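Risk register update: the risk that structure generation would not scale has been downgraded. Supporting records follow, first protein first.
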Amino acid sequence: MSRTDDRGQAHTLEAFAAAILIVAGLTFALQATAVTPLSASTSNQHLENQQRAVATDLLETSAANGDLREAILRWDPNRSSFRASGTRGQFTEGGPPNGFGEALDRAFRDGRIAFNVELRYGPRYGESEPMVDMGSPSDNAVTATRTVVLTDDANLTMPGYEDRTLAQVAADDDQSFYAEDPDSRPIYRVEVRITVWQL
């Protein structure tokens, strides 16, 4: 009777030890392979590719219908700002109040996706001016770009300045356009760069 009790106790202890080992192993495995919303995975790569495609399509569509050109010419030459409210600087809560900004908000902000829009210009696009700044992009951010060519006879689209051409702004010492006229040439090349990331 005593041998049977000893064997039963030994089997019980072995079962408890095995259960503890299994639980510890599962716990370690789950911690080592934890998946977060920003973890690299096939689905995240698919989302990044999709966001890049949407941004590229948005730039192409906006360029084709004139919204992109209108947006980059929406500049206050006295305040050096894209904003008409009297405050200097860029938009921080969404796109500008025009067709391009509405398209950005529909495509990204309404889906809780943050974006920045930066206008690059100058020799080999070494200088830039932010149009929309919604924060610092995460590691999984994607970008899309489109170059727009402006000429000296292009009119600003900022309310109150629609009669001012880029040539007139460049000739006025009290006014300025963010993209300086390189070498007094009659054209300006502006690269529009959209950076998109999941919040």
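Supporting record for the second protein:
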Amino acid sequence: MASGEHSHSGLLIVISAPSGGGKTTICEQLLQHQPNTVRAITCTTRDPREGEKDGVDYYFLDAETFLKRVQAGNFLEHARVYGNSYGTLKSEVLGKMRQGKDVLLSVDVQGAATIREHAEEYPELKRALITVFLAPPSLAVLEKRLQKRGKDSGAEIKKRLGEARQEIAQWKHFDYMMVSSSISEDTKKMQSIITAEKLRRSRAQLPDYD
């Protein structure tokens, strides 16, 4: 890549947290309040729900097309969740970054690890990547959040808490670790991280003084 090419590219902001940890809420807040931030539209093999639009909410693919994309190496990360496949296209992320947008991705710790691996192969992604782990203040608080959602049985919540312990142990692999407090405080912290990252010497640009 020539010097200066895509020098105005945006950031790739990856947020991970255990299930019920609040990563979806923080992403929604950033999309509302952080200028120039967009989400990467995910591909999925599940059927559209009422009101969902292809290319807006998701890219809806059949299983065969999804598999072909996997085999072609088109995905930055992909996973199987409750019988359906989900994946983030490299072209989706790079296309928006090259428009100068900051791209937001909410993934589990395994997805974040896969993205880090891919970034090692792509200097443009490596330069743009910021990873943040959002940790719950305690497992008791996380359990209450999962119960409040009302989506899972007691056995499923117990399983998720066990998975959360394993996920929390991965926090050292992230650039930043935030212990979740309130939505407003978590959002402010994320905005501070984004501001600081944009001021890094490797990303900052001086005006043309000629």
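The first strand starts at residue 12 and ends at 16. On this basis the risk owner (M.S.) recommends closing the item.
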